[in-house]
């Protein structure tokens, strides 16, 4: 099936993107107002460097993943022109429509919950799946990766505080199933990922990030090999995550602004 035509009109003024009309379809949402994408990228990079300085880390040890959930392909292309190449999507269906409309040299990670029936598409679309939260899901990914003739890097998602509303492994269950997952063909465990409870005070995320780092160390002891990645921290708290050892931060709002709420089309009323 061909990706649906995307109906957007945007005005690009050197490094500034102005949304001059809002048209909605089922996949993407245009944003309100004027977004200085170049300025936002620079500010985020400055924040990354400052956090690394406080932690005594090399800024090159932290990878910025731009979260483009509901963003139209035109915004992705603008971000690419400003130097971003790694993007994260939350939903396989949206990514399947969007990725073919974006430059081909980009790298894409799945960061949202993955259902087993979407594993084949996920393996084809993404270079990494960050949200593996069960052994059955890992087994399905391994099966689809073998069929596709590729090795799939994954991160294991952890529910660090046991929130009922969130997906993710309980820490002890992750450790219990770790060796079984690691033995699956065509899968490589590259580390852990977590989304801590939201708080308006970034410092409150610190103990959750620290717990994930300590869990990664325990996982490394079980496997006997280092795990290179800790994916943790978003727009409001990624500096704290970097101070606690994040190697990858997932940033959307700080780059692209707040998402607008979609309204139904007039002909659907």
Give the arrangement of secondary structure elements.
Elements: E1 10-13, E2 16-19, E3 34-35, H1 37-55, E4 63-67, H2 73-81, E5 86-89, H3 92-98, E6 107-110, H4 119-125, E7 128-132, H5 135-148, E8 152-158, H6 171-182, E9 187-194, H7 206-223, E10 229-231, H8 238-243, E11 248-251, H9 253-256
Helix pairs in contact: 4-5, 6-7
Class of secondary structure makeup: alpha/beta
Mean pLDDT reading: 87
For this structure, the CATH topology is TIM Barrel
Going across the major beta sheet, what is the strand order?
Answer: 10-9-8-7-6-5-4-11
**Total domains, how many?**
1
Percentage of residues assigned to helices: 25-40%
**What's the number of helices?**
9
**CATH-level-2 architecture:** Alpha-Beta Barrel
Radius of gyration: 19 Å
Number of strands: 11
